[in-house]
């Protein structure tokens, strides 16, 4: 969409997820022209069966710089539980999955659980998204303009392209090439799905912590996470939706286990859940037969290195720039900083007179340094917490959920 103000730059945003929409809001607030594209259709964008929550903590400081004041005031609408108090939790409790004993609390800066869907819908207000636009390729022509070609045969041209299109970014492929853009597999797999329980069990789960609780089983290092996903009526626990996540190192799975089918996954999930202390045992065993549990692999961008941004014309943001494993809760927070920093970079061009090449290169350098640091620390967290022998040497013990600093690379 075109906005009022100077027309010196027109930005193409690929991806209407959290980072793409916050970037759009920031550009709109700065009167910088943009168009935002989303690969999903108007229908699938709202009806995706995969829904999950995210942990917001230090990244919240970057939201107000991009959102208009009226949306900042309504940000509580994106919370998994909009009725929660600001001091509902100080961190994530980690328990022994076999005994239920509290091991430690992973500290965080005013943590909240936010709904991916609610946050996208809030950030999307006032933004004209072009749906059904799957990128085929992107390039910079001899005229210095960025051209994006979509699978439906349409094209778009602008001055700057920012790929906010997630971990499997097509824009990243166009910038660094297909091979260099590939994700690196981590020997960790996970179940991640939403579920509702009866009122008694739902209340019992939240008694441990208002937002989330997790546990590590000492016998095989499996992590079992429970967090609140949606609270339509605080007085009716049976209406609450929880996020269930169970993850493990691949070689801890017995060879006879079949994870290729929904039936096999549910059987494995229930068998593992039966070994747990409460409330994880009851939560796992309460999942009904026929529930279709997705299976995900842990990945990150292990090939990340300085990319050619075509004189500032093509860059990345959010998971497209630094896809990471989820066990330190850093993906959303880094994406929010990316969006805010990208908007600030373009303001230096449009208002400050800095060259596009310099402004975007400075943005890229910071994103790459911060992103590769966090990808490495999150990877260490993922590998260490799934092994009882290394659990207490993991980053969560030393630095919690706080934003990583350079010195943390050696300490974590």
Textual characterization of the structure:
InterPro entries: FAD-bd (IPR002938), FAD/NAD-bd_sf (IPR036188). This is FAD/NAD(P)-binding domain-containing protein. One of its GO terms (molecular function) is FAD binding. There is one protein chain. With 412 residues, the chain is an alpha/beta fold. The protein folds into 2 domains: 10-80 and 115-184 and 299-411, FAD/NAD(P)-binding domain (3-Layer(bba) Sandwich); 186-298, 2-Layer Sandwich (D-Amino Acid Oxidase, Chain A, domain 2). The protein is 31% helix and 23% strand. The protein contains 13 helices and 17 strands. The strands form 4 sheets. A 7-stranded mixed β-sheet has the order 5-4-13-14-15-12-16, sandwiched between helices. Strands 7-2-1-11-17 form a 5-stranded parallel β-sheet, sandwiched between helices. Strands 8-9-10 form a 3-stranded antiparallel β-sheet, with helices on one face. The radius of gyration is 22 Å and the shape is globular. The termini are far apart. The relative contact order is 0.17. Mean pLDDT is 94; it is low at 1-7.
Low-pLDDT parts are 1-7
Number of strands: 17
Structural class given helices, strands, pairing?
alpha/beta
Mean pLDDT: 94
First and last CA, distance: 44 Å
Number of helices: 13
Q: What's the name of the CATH homologous superfamily of the largest domain?
A: FAD/NAD(P)-binding domain
SSE order, as H and E? Answer: EHEHEHEEEHEEEEEHHEHEEEHHEEHHHH
**Largest sheet report:** 7 strands, mixed
Helix content: 25-40%
Query: Biggest sheet: strands side by side, in what order?
Result: 5-4-13-14-15-12-16
CATH topology-level name of the largest domain = FAD/NAD(P)-binding domain
Organism: Cucurbitaria berberidis CBS 394.84
Protein name: FAD/NAD(P)-binding domain-containing protein
Domain FAD-binding: 9-370
Keywords: FAD, Flavoprotein, Monooxygenase, Oxidoreductase
């Amino acid at each position: 969409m075109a906005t009022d103000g100077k027309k010196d730059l027109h930005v193409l945003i690929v991806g209407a997820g959290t980072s793409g929409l916050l970037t759009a809001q920031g550009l709109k607030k700065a009167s910088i022209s943009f168009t935002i594209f989303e690969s999903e259709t108007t229908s699938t964008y709202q009806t995706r069966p995969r829904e999950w929550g995210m942990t917001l903590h230090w990244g919240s400081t970057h939201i107000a710089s991009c959102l208009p004041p009226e949306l900042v005031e309504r940000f509580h609408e994106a919370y998994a539980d909009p009725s929660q108090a600001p001091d509902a939790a100080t961190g994530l409790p980690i328990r022994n999955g076999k005994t239920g004993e509290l091991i430690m609390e992973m500290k965080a800066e005013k943590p909240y659980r936010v709904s991916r869907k609610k946050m996208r819908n809030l950030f999307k207000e006032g933004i004209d998204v072009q749906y059904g636009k799957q990128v085929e390729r992107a390039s910079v022509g001899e005229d210095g303009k960025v051209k994006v070609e979509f699978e439906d045969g349409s094209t778009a041209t602008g001055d700057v392209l920012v790929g906010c299109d997630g971990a499997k970014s097509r824009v990243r492929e166009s910038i660094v090439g297909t091979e260099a853009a590939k994700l690196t597999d981590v020997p960790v797999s996970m179940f991640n799905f939403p579920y509702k329980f009866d009122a008694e069990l739902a209340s019992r789960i939240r008694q441990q912590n208002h937002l989330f609780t997790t546990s590590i089983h000492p016998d095989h290092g499996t992590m079992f996470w429970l967090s609140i996903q949606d609270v339509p009526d605080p007085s009716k626990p049976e209406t609450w939706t929880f996020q269930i996540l169970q993850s493990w190192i691949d070689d801890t799975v017995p060879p006879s286990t079949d994870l290729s089918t929904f039936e096999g996954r549910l059987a494995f999930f229930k068998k593992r859940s039966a070994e747990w202390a409460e409330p994880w045992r009851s939560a796992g065993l309460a999942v009904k037969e026929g529930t279709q549990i997705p299976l995900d692999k842990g990945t990150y961008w292990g090939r990340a290195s300085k990319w050619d941004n075509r004189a500032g014309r093509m860059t990345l943001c959010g998971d497209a720039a630094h896809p990471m494993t989820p066990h330190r809760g850093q993906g959303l927070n880094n994406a929010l900083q990316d969006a805010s920093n990208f908007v600030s970079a373009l303001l230096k061009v449009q208002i400050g007179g800095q060259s596009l090449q310099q402004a975007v290169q400075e943005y890229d350098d910071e994103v790459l340094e911060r992103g590769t640091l966090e990808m490495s620390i999150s990877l260490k967290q993922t590998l260490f917490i799934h092994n009882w022998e290394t659990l207490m040497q993991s980053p969560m013990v030393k630095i919690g959920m706080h934003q990583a600093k350079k010195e943390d690379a050696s300490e974590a």
